[in-house]
Specification:
alpha/beta; 7-stranded parallel sheet; 7 helices; 7 strands; Rossmann fold
Length: 285
């Protein structure tokens, strides 16, 4: 039996990067997926790609940072599939690196809306249905929410909020049989961690690799594998937990990645084919 057979999941930010990998991984394990994204995200493409492989998925487009839209997203899951078992709060943006004195207010408010508010609104909208199914929430934290990272204080602050928010929600929702957990990615091989496609400069990119015990970026599928575990019944005794998927960056000291065994430095091939790994919101405009 597949690990998510009979389950219904909403994945926000589901069309690009880690979100795409989560959608495809969950669908391959039997879940029915609502792929949620902003109107300009390749949501339809991901739905079609899942369908071609025999999976079940529908598209939802809109800003789930607005409560009405978040409720509409949940309503679509229930209308299409009859229930909701899993909410993946993956939506988020990473649009600027700068010291705080130079950090734009525009980027700050944009990240608050897309990182924090989306998680709050979707959780609020989904809980009535998750309480019925004794379901669970898994949200996107980050190494930046645990470590102090120069020129990333705003982004790290949004992720620290999510970690505290989900831990509090786990304590609150245990009374209703709902589990809540966080995945904390380190540097992952998406648009966000390449100087050509994201806000990091070359120095930051190099330091990320040096500071990671495995000496490389993780793959979106490696992160999706941990989401799969936490969302499945295999994690039935896990709630309020933060699972770091960071190649050891949060425990490393100095340029540890330079010493990594060469077997660690090669990305695994994985089982799913990604088309939108290097898309996603890395700027406001």
């Amino acid at each position: 039996m597949k690990r998510l057979e009979g389950k219904v999941a909403i994945v926000t930010g589901g069309a690009t990067g880690i979100g795409e990998a989560i959608c495809k991984k969950f669908a391959a394990e039997g879940a029915k997926i609502v792929v949620a994204g902003l109107p300009d995200d390749p949501v339809d493409e991901v739905v079609n790609e899942i369908s071609k492989l025999g999976g079940a998925a529908v598209a939802f487009k809109g800003n789930v940072g607005e409560f009405k839209t978040a409720k509409d997203c949940v309503a679509q899951a229930v209308k299409e599939y009859g229930k909701l078992d899993i909410l993946i709060n993956n939506a988020g943006v990473f649009v600027e690196t700068n010291e705080l004195t130079d950090y734009s207010e525009e980027s700050y408010f944009y990240m608050i809306e897309n990182n924090i508010t989306t998680t709050f609104m979707m959780s609020k909208a989904a809980l009535p249905e998750l309480q019925k199914t004794k379901g669970n929430i898994v949200a996107a934290g980050s190494e930046a929410g645990v470590l102090g990272i120069p020129q990333n204080v705003a982004y790290g602050g949004t992720k620290a909020f999510i970690i505290a928010f989900i831990k509090g929600l786990a304590a609150e929702q245990a009374a209703y049989g709902v589990r809540c957990n966080i995945v904390g990615p380190g540097p992952i091989d998406t648009a966000w961690t390449h100087k050509e496609t994201g806000p990091m400069n070359g120095k930051m990119e190099k330091l990320n690799m040096q500071a990671t015990l495995m000496g490389r970026r993780g793959t979106p599928e490696e992160v999706a594998n941990v989401y799969l575990f936490l969302a499945s019944d295999e994690a039935s005794y896990v709630t309020g937990a933060l699972y770091m998927v960071d190649g050891g960056i949060t425990i490393a000291k100095g340029p540890a990645g330079d010493q990594a065994d060469k077997s660690f430095k090669s990305e695994p091939e994985g089982d799913i084919k990604l088309q939108h790994e290097f898309e996603g919101h890395t700027s406001i405009h």
